């Protein structure tokens, strides 16, 4: 039972990232009809927002401490972060320690702006083009963004540790311990997903967007500029992907190719959930995360070697053979 519950937790952890990325992908496809292969790159950029803020907060100046000496006997050079000199040693150290959660606030406007620029500068020119053209241009954009990050930050992973108070393990039950930050990531994803659904369900803006997703022409005939609202939804989708990347940094150190690692999996999640279905994308994300977790167990891989690498694709094949639209796909989408 302990092993079973642990694997469920591992699955929810993985499923949280899948669900957040797939949710953003589905928002873009459902509103704009664009197959965005650059969405994984937005996840990566979000992770590097935390790297940038961490380095910014750690900027320091050097002073000479005559009370200390180095190994040569000379007065020691002490580096003091600027935030510690501005806010005091304790408050400054706390700000640095909580750089990843603080990066969430930093990443929201940054990712929305990047999404807006991407949509206005490139994506809008491919609305009426074939999906193959959209895939090619967005995949090319993803490669460009990946190489830009590689040039700026190098090819090696960069550690972005969680706050000290959230970096330990929690005892959930007798014999079950689990990293605190992974639990935080799961609840964070639930909050973000809930906020997106509440925004679409209970606000006038969201209702108009949902109406536009169902019948864009009719909404336009009512005198509503649905294109502007869809552009903002692209920014929100980019923000969701970025937030997923920010909080994922302590779990998997940010690197320039992490977006590509999640890209294919996230599209499989979207297809399994049903193209254009937001609940389907979230449900499929958690479902496939749990299945992948159980397939990674030693007892399973000993019986079927490599099953953990292909389980998601096998499930996708089975579901699409039975339900070509996916679990909750809408009629007429991608058919």
From TrEMBL:
Residue spans crossing the bilayer: 20-53, 98-118, 183-209, 229-250, 262-291, 303-322
Annotated GO biological process: amino acid transport
Keyword set, alphabetical order: Amino-acid transport, Cell membrane, Membrane, Transmembrane, Transmembrane helix, Transport
UniProt GO cellular component terms: plasma membrane
Keyword Amino-acid biosynthesis: no
Subcellular compartments: Cell membrane
One protein family per Pfam: BPD_transp_2
Membrane topology term: Multi-pass membrane protein
InterPro entries in UniProt: ABC_transp_permease (IPR001851), BCAA_transport_permease (IPR052157)
Predominant cellular place of this UniProt entry's protein: membrane
Gene Ontology MF term list: transmembrane transporter activity
Domain of life, per lineage: Bacteria
Similarity comment: Belongs to the binding-protein-dependent transport system permease family. LivHM subfamily.
UniProt protein name: High-affinity branched-chain amino acid transport system permease protein LivH
